[in-house]
Amino acid sequence: MNKILATIKLIEKQVKTCTVPAVSQVAWRNDPYLILVSCILSLRTKDKTTLEASRRLFKAADTPRKMLKLSEKRIQGLIYPVGFYRNKSRVILELSRKLIRDHRGRVPDSLEELLKFKGVGRKTANLVLGLGYDIPAICVDTHVHRISNRLGWVKTGDPHQTEEALGKIIPRRHWIGLNTSLVTFGQNICVPISPYCSRCYVSKLCKQAGVNKSR
What we know:
Distance between the termini: 28 Å
Number of helices: 12
Low-confidence stretches: none
Order of helices and strands: HHHHHHHHHHHH
């Protein structure tokens, strides 16, 4: 436990001057709806593109009711070139409609309810809970899954297993910030191929599991 906490602290220190992920930047507005929509935009899309698309879209519509006033084609134009922008425009309209119909326009603050929305998986739901409602939740994306295994914290085959394993070894007070820290770390230092181990603050605490070549 102490080693893990020491590692988290060093990672937070190393990424302090790095740009945080797009969804984390959107989260500064403390609006669960914007976080939810931005998460959907981010799927299979680079951060820079996600952030720019989010800003264009939210300038035109930043609530479910305002979003429904936009046509599908208009949303497509605002979010292009995010990946699968046509499908995402439909998902955004559908979830906005469902929010108004079933939740009075408010994004649910429970994992069970969030997972009922089309296009929302555990990663997105947990990020909304943590960043949108300050509810402890571990969001595991490809970076968190890779780094947790690479460090030797867990030995898991998929993100869901990683989420469950991390929940047993990471104190709840670190759950919310873990995704932002590890994703930033994974984008700048502990990259998928040839990580920058020579300038990594946690290299001495890392098992480097699966690392064949580093820089």
